[in-house]
Amino acid sequence: MNKLIVSPSPHDENYLKTSTIMLNVILALLPALGVGFYMFGFRAVTLTAVCIASCMMFEYASRKIMGRSNTISDLSAVVTGIILAMNLPVTLPYWMAVIGCFAAIVIVKQLFGGLGQNFANPAITARIVLMVSFPSAMTHWIKPTEYDYDAVSSATPLAVKAAGGDAPSYIDMFIGKTGGCIGETCALALLLGGLYLAARGIISLAAPVSFIGSLFLLSWAGGDDPVFSILAGGVFLGAFFMATDYATTPITFKGKIVFGLGCGIITFVIRHFGSYPEGVSFSILLMNVLTPYIEQLTRTKIFGAKEAEKNEG
Amino acid sequence: MKKLNGIRLKHRKNTENSQTIDFTLPAKVVIPMSMHMGVPCQPLVKVGDTVKVGQKIGDSDAPFSVPVHSGVSGKVTAVSDYRNAMGTVCKAVEIETDGEQTISEDVKPPVVTDKESFIKAVRESGSCGLGGAGFPTHIKLNPKTPIDTLIINAAECEPYITADYREMLECPEDIIGGINLIKKQLGIKNAKLAIEANKPEAIKNFTEMAKNDDTIDIVTLPSSYPQGAEKVIIYNSTGRIVKEGELPSDEGVIVINVSTVAFIYRYMQTGMPLVTRRLTIDGNAVGEPKNVRAIIGTSFRELLDFCKTDIDSIKKLIGGGPMMGMSIPDINMPVVKTSNALLAIKTYDERKTSNCIRCGRCVRVCPMGLMPAEIDKAYKIKNIDELKELKVMLCMNCGSCTYVCPANRKLAETNQLAKSLIPRK
Q: Is the pLDDT of residue A153 over 70?
């Protein structure tokens, strides 16, 4: 007979793994990514592939250099690669995308300890790094479905509006037939992906609903077109896939609501009062920074707990 | 009323229709002097003594202890040191059976005239909580504060185990008799028999039996783990919250296991102390899962053989349920008073523990509303103030957090380790 294994309870096993969660997130991203491929052509495919490959390579190399275990198999680097690619314009030079991946994986994620330990969302931070480093390359948009990568044309709906032009129709914005980053244009596909994750119990809808809801109401109150506000820019991508990131958003339901509200408010303020047309990335990053404080203030109510004794001093 | 968190487990009650089988008399029994919480007993017999069924073979002067009796007649062949599954070292009495099963002259119905003599009789019965935790019954039934409600714990919320369920189907009169007896002796007005919703037949039977008695209320508990945890069952059957540092009796309730109640009733009729118990033998290494009534001291190996177990394939043996039961280090260990199940498992998840991904599942399932992920973090840096703030002492080790963790972190275990950092007052 084998030696019996002795371990503390519980002994019952549950086969949900981190990699299963990540795989589900990848599945949920596929519809929006597919629409991006269709709208922006083959270069969107290769750019995404470059992002995924470099994220995995950086994940492997940085952990190897730091003498830590290999975590490629948890698939989190793949998720970061896909989300980052979805946040880039299709014409971005590959080497810039690789720099973005380096920022996301090495600087934001691994230097803070890897999966779950980073305080800021890797893809969002990488997008911001690229945006401030290469502003013109990061705002070079093409017309959807025309695949003409050299034409300087079609701005994003937000840029069009900021320049005083006519915004595209709601329908075009809902199905993603507008200029913009590879994965952010199709609100419908992002919504489907988000609802899939919520149905599988992987994300909570608290943050997306409070994010989109508060942005809608504030835009309305501020005299902007509220439907346009929530469909334009990266609101759906940010709300469903980045404001629900486990590592960088609060754990409790209350905390998630506060997080979403904060994102909505900051996005509105930047768009309405700032000179920047897009505010989603900054709003999520700023709320990431506030997350530890939100967490402190939104802890769970403990069953039967008595008031803590007051510490002296 | 706020709903407490919980998890859905596969019930795996494979033995729910298996009628209890009396296990044959073993050639030898080993009876430890410590089988549950409380002070270990000192053996009252020595090598060479003959003992009879029901004879007291161990006792202690300490109030927080319960005497031990022999379930066989035969000859004492050894009194030796023994380390039980919890790691406590005590004496154990080994008895070679003579096959006669002669009953001791001491076995006669106790004379009960008042509460004091009732409590004394309960102690003499050797009774402890049969649901697994093994709290001495005579202490539980003798609280310092007035009690208005007796809660009978028939949740049996752990997977596999059907020992309490079979008690409910096979001996319902003993249960109702025991409830009435305890109510009468302790002057408790109401009783609530709380059964988890996954046992509809038991709920139906008892609702029928108690329909003319408005002092016994049958409560259906939701089918989510852990319904049988004391604070959870009190809240879900009465709405009362046992606060931090309080005992159930501070809220006017006593919670007692259903099989314990039936045993107390039978003891008062016959005087036969706790020398046998029903346990569920199951697990994926067991060929024929069964419910058996075994004499306390019978070796686990014999029971597993009886249930056609592939002994060589066993990787893990669990005494009790898969969520809160204890690992058994040695297959030759004996059945004790608290053995409500014996699970032989041939699979073991050897996944490595990885970083917390902060998914928050542990927080969403904790019935106490604790934040195991935060406790884990505070434990790592030994932040005692933070651990106190997070109320780690309220963790009842139900194991739900570890169960749901995708990073395979042993959160429940960490909670227990964290508790040990907090100085006791």
A: no
The answer for residues whose C-beta is within 8 angstroms of residue B184's C-beta and 6 or more apart is none
What order do you get walking across the sheet with B42-43 strand by strand?
Answer: B42-43, B56-59, B68-69
User: By CA distance, what is A11's nearest residue in B?
Assistant: B322
pLDDT at B193 over 90: yes
Instruction: Calculate the CA A125 to chain-centre distance.
Output: 10
Are B317 and A117 a contacting pair at CB < 8 A? no
| Token pair of A60 as six digits | 């492997």
Tell me the residue range of the domain where B369 lies: 361-419
Buried b vs exposed e over A151-165: b needs ≥16 C-beta within 10 Å? Answer: eeebbbbbbbbeeee
Residues of chain A with pLDDT > 90: what percent?
76
Residue of B nearest to A13 (CA): B403
| Angstrom distance (rounded) from CA B323 to CA B124 | 32
Closest CA to B341 of B132, B184, B174: B132
CA-based Rg of chain A, rounded to a whole angstrom? 21
- Yes or no: say if A100 and A126 are a contact pair by the CB < 8 Å rule: yes
Residue B172's closest CA among B205, B200, B217?
Answer: B205
Q: Give the minimum alpha-carbon distance from A193 to chain B in angstroms, rounded to a whole number.
A: 18
One domain, residues B262 and B378: no
Boundary-marking domain end, from B235, B270, B305 = B270
Cα–Cα distance measured from residue A241 to residue A189, given in angstroms and rounded to the nearest whole number: 12
Q: Does B412 touch chain A (CB under 8 A)?
A: yes
- pLDDT of A14 reads 80
pLDDT given at position B338? 94
Distance set, CA B399 to CA A3, A21, B11, B35 (Å) = 24, 21, 16, 22
Q: How many domains does chain B have?
A: 2
Interface contact A304-B397, CB threshold 8 A: no
Least confident of B36-40, B264-268, B297-301, B399-403: B36-40
Asked if B312 is an interface residue toward chain A (Cβ–Cβ < 8 A), one would say: yes
End position of a domain, from candidates B249, B270, B291: B270
For A16, which residue in chain B has the nearest alpha carbon?
B406
Answer for the pair B31, B83: CB distance below 8 angstroms, yes or no.
Answer: no
The answer to whether A285 touches A128, Cβ cutoff 8 Å, is: yes
Computed over every residue of chain A, the mean pLDDT equals 91
Our measurement of the distance from residue A183's CA atom to the centroid of its chain's CA atoms, rounded to an integer in Å, reads 11
Residue B339, in any domain of the structure:
no
Three-state secondary structure call for residue A170: helix
> How far does the CA of residue A309 sit from the closest CA of chain B (Å)?
9
Q: Tell me if A154 sits within 8 A of A179, measured CB to CB.
A: yes
Domain holding B126: CATH number? 3.40.50.11540
Which residues in chain B (243-262) have CB-CB distances under 8 A to chain A? 243-246
Q: Chain B contacts of A303, Cβ < 8 Å?
A: 4, 231, 235, 241, 367-369, 394
| Residue B170 domain flag | yes
Please report the ipTM that was assigned to this predicted complex: 0.89
Instruction: Determine, yes or no, domain membership for B103.
Output: no
Min distance A280 CA to chain B CA atoms (Å)? 23
Closest by Cβ to A305, choosing from B4, B394, B412: B394
Q: For the sheet containing B216-221, what is the strand order?
A: B216-221, B190-196, B149-154, B253-257
Distance CA B298, CA B27 (A): 9
pLDDT computed for residue A311 by the predictor:
47
Q: Is B358 on the interface with A (CB under 8 A)?
A: yes
Cβ distance of B325 and A2 shorter than 8 Å: no
Residue B410 near chain A (CB below 8 Å): yes
Q: Name which of B376, B383, B381 is nearest B359 in CA terms.
A: B376
In terms of domains, do B133 and B262 share one? Answer: yes
C-beta separation of A97 from A86 below 8 A: no
